[in-house]
Design brief:
Shape: elongated
Radius of gyration: 22 Å
Distance between the termini: 18 Å
Oligomer: single chain
Low-confidence stretches: 139-145, 203-211
Strand order of the largest sheet: 3-4-2-1-5-7-8-6
Order of helices and strands: EHHEHHEHHEHEEHHEHEHEHEEEHHE
Helix content: 25-40%
Largest sheet: 8 strands, mixed
Strand content: 15-25%
Number of strands: 13
Length: about 375
Amino acid sequence: MKKTKVIVIKLGTSVLTAGTDKLNKPRMIDIVTQCMTLKQQGYQPVLVSSGAVAAGRDAVEHSVGVSIAEKQMLAAIGQGQLIHLWQSLFALYDQPVAQLLLTRADVEDRGRYLNARDTITQLLKHQVIPIVNENDAVATSEIKVGDNDNLSSLVAILANADKLLLLTDQPGLFTADPRSNPTATLISEVEQIDQSLMALAGGAGSKLGTGGMYTKLEAARTAQRAGIETIIAKGAEPQVIEQVMAGTAQSTTFVRFDAPLDGRKKWLLSGPKSAGFVQCDIGAVAAISHQGASLLAKGIVAMGGEFARGDVIEIRDLDDQLVAKGLVAFDHREMDQIKRLHSSEIPLVLGYPASNVVVHRDDLVLLDVYAGSV
């Protein structure tokens, strides 16, 4: 799909509360004003807004615990409070907004993924600002994205965004934790998110939030793979969104990968969890990562998990590093029989006609260091 001027802005709880226990209306008004400036410049903002549980705590007079059921209760109360506040603030500019509550199930299922994508597309077409949050009131651990950082990267893919802006309580990624190490320096640009970089990430910066720098790096890595530039910046800075767009903000920018992804591959990247894996030899890894080839049975040396035809599986190298994800053409029992075989031998071993590839190129998306290879 052709890129649009869509900017997904993730707002952390610490940003919306200004470090307090309650939503900070002056801070939210400032964000609304900046979003309207974006629209005047021809951009289309999409907000991924935390703060539902914090809004729920603010609405309940007595003290509430921290169990899952109690948090879900607070989210159910706070979602209405949160969207009502956003609606009232954007109404000052006669700007309509819409609420979308998502769970991982909404992006794992291909049909629901397309429905969510079409809804966001239509909202933007009609100049409505989508405000997205996870449906914490009903989500269980099995269907939760888990944090709004990773949710924002999925929303950026759904919206076919140009940029993902993660606003937090820090101006970006540092060489060490700046809260405990005064010599830490800001990393202004990142091309590749590897394990050494992930090791720099700490825990959650706020007791109210669910994400830390680690989840922001996970989100940036997902967005990178989809060709979306990601910026981490400090939400408390005046006109921070305008500064980011002008390239003058103190921030960390994660450079997008050049390799474009079509709609199905974006869904593979953002949506379903893997049901199993296959481990491949050097030749197979080179073929799919550098030559644009499909995965053949000949290159598979081992496998794991129980999967059916059409399930998503991981493709790993001999060092067990994740290379790609894709839709498999065989179930796990068949895979165990055909690994290391030439394509011509597969029907003879299985006893019936079968695909000559394990994962077709059109149903495969490269990940991590391999993603920028084609």
